[in-house]
From TrEMBL:
PROSITE patterns: HD. PANTHER family: DEOXYNUCLEOSIDE TRIPHOSPHATE TRIPHOSPHOHYDROLASE (PTHR11373), DEOXYNUCLEOSIDE TRIPHOSPHATE TRIPHOSPHOHYDROLASE SAMHD1 (PTHR11373:SF4). GO terms for biological process: dGTP catabolic process. SMART domains: HDc (SM00471). SUPFAM superfamilies: HD-domain/PDEase-like. The lineage of its organism: Eukaryota, Viridiplantae, Streptophyta, Embryophyta, Tracheophyta. It comes from Quercus rubra. This is HD domain-containing protein. GO terms for molecular function: dGTPase activity.
Length: 420
């Protein structure tokens, strides 16, 4: 790509030989999405730990593989992909704006490490564990981002990894950047670095770039979103990562593809039915296995993964019979039956509350079979483009360089429907 100039602001590439030196010291793995991924020595120390290797036993899409047989990819693959894209993104910014932005090898290493470790604290069965199971057995809020931060410290302490404390601090802040636990960024920090892995400002980040491409590929779905275009054109203006005005369609495709994945894969009626059955199985097993206690201690948490389902299924303990029977029903495809779904009209969203089993039971008419609350499971599903109710391309703050670039300040899009 050529240079873009405006009022003395140079965007010409500044190439460094540091990356080629890194390659000679790195190991590589072949990824089915990104090709060869080169792993630097420091990140390899984190990968070669039991805490990180646990991600091999966490399916990226939870129970979706029982509907889409190819969806058996893991959080391990995804984490390597985000590591690679995070490194590529910050290196491209360094190549084009390195002197202006003062990007150094410390920054590159920090961003790569944040990409690698952003999901190390993820629970079993994708988001089901955090959003469906834990709220029913715990008081208070728990998030996988917070556990990722705890596990980062645990890995460093347990494996005596020599690393700058300042780098670890920034890695943890980058992991939390898009969560409700995001920490204030100091005035002296390079804010744009915190938007690469988990973008809390507008939702455009390499985490989405990877999982959208990877999930579409695994499920055999077409993906017309090309993240490479955004990676090439990204620039920093006003300490925020921005994209060319003509790339607005590519950005729209990013969020539209994500919404399509929610509709066709993540909230597929059969997938939701299986997830509800797994939640019920975990709830019935919790008193005996004390699953919820694992989340309090990082030294125990790394032992918790998707294999808990096989543990329940293969044990002969009578206290786990109800859980075992539910899992056997899943194996034999005797699933909860999908009854109906209701799309909430846009003008009703403001005052609409979540539907409960009690609402369904109370709405029954006399005659025929009478349902009880325990006979009904309700899944309230919110599908949006980013994090809210507005079109992400509605609000645009125009900051132009030679009429080639503008800052697209994305806000969240609308809730589409609620499934019952």
């Amino acid at each position: 790509m050529g240079a873009y100039c405006n009022d003395g602001l140079s965007l010409s590439p500044i190439y460094s030989f540091a990356s080629s030196q890194d390659l000679r010291l790195s190991k590589h793995v072949h990824d089915n999405v990104h090709g060869n991924i080169y792993i630097d020595p420091l990140c390899l120390k984190f990968i070669d730990t039991e805490q990180f290797q646990r991600l091999r036993e966490l399916k990226q899409l939870g129970m979706a593989h029982l509907v889409y047989p190819g969806a058996v990819h893991s959080r391990f693959e995804h984490s390597l992909g985000v590591y690679w894209l995070a490194g590529e993104a910050v290196q491209k910014l360094k190549n084009y704006q390195g002197l202006e932005l003062d990007i150094d090898q410390f920054d590159i290493q920090t961003v790569k490490l944040a990409g690698l470790l952003h999901d190390v604290g993820h629970g079993p069965f994708s988001h089901l564990f955090e959003r469906e199971f834990l709220p029913r057995v715990l008081d208070g809020h728990w998030s996988h981002e917070q556990m990722s931060v705890k596990l980062v410290d645990d890995i460093v302490d347990k494996h005596y990894i020599e690393i700058d404390p300042e780098m670890i601090r920034k890695v943890k802040e980058m992991i939390l950047a898009s969560s409700e636990f995001a920490r204030p960024i100091g005035s002296g920090e390079k804010h744009f670095l915190y938007d690469i892995v988990a973008n809390g400002r507008n939702g455009i980040d390499v985490d989405k770039f990877d999982y959208i491409a990877r999930d579409c590929r695994a499920c055999g779905l077409g993906c017309n979103f090309q993240f490479q275009r955004l990676m090439e054109s990204m620039r920093v203006l006003g300490d925020e990562i921005c994209y060319r005005a003509k790339d607005y369609l590519t950005i729209h495709k990013l969020f539209a593809t994500r919404a399509d994945l929610y509709r066709t894969v993540y909230t597929h009626p059969k997938v939701k039915a299986i997830e509800l059955m797994v939640v019920d199985a975990l709830l019935k097993a919790n008193d005996y296995l004390d699953i919820s206690s694992f989340i309090q201690d990082p030294s125990k948490y790394w032992k918790l993964d998707d294999t808990i389902m096989k543990t329940i299924e293969t044990t002969s303990n009578p206290e786990l019979k109800e859980s075992r029977d539910l899992i056997m029903r899943i194996r034999r495809r005797n699933l909860y039956q999908f009854c109906n779904e209701y799309a909430v009209p846009k003008d009703k969203l403001e005052n609409f509350r979540d539907v409960t089993p009690q609402d369904i039971v109370c709405s029954q008419k006399n005659g025929g079979v009478i349902l009880k609350e325990e006979d009904v499971s309700v899944s309230n599903v919110r599908i949006d483009l980013t994090r809210g109710r507005q079109n992400p391309l509605e609000r645009i703050m125009k900051v132009r360089i030679n009429s080639r670039y503008l800052m697209i300040a994305l806000v969240t899009c609308c809730l589409h429907h609620i499934k019952i």
